[in-house]
Amino acid sequence: MKETVVSGIRSTGKLHLGNYYGALSNFVKMQDEYNCFFFIADLHSLTTHPTPGDLSRTVREVVVEYLAAGINPETSTIYVQSDVPEVAELYLYLNMNAYLGELERATAFKDKVRSNPDNVNAGLLTYPVLMASDILLHHGTKVPVGKDQEQHLEMTRTFANRFNRLYNVEYFQEAMAFSYSNKLVKIPGLDGNGKMGKSNGDASCVYLSDAPEVIRKKVMRAVSDSGPTEMNQPKPEAIQNLFDLMKVVSTADTLSHFEDLYNNCAIRYGDFKKQLAEDMILATEPVRSRINDITNDDEYLKKVVRLGAEKASESARKTIQEVREIIGIKRLF
Ligand code: TRP
Question: Has this prediction a pTM greater than 0.70?
Answer without folding.
Answer: yes
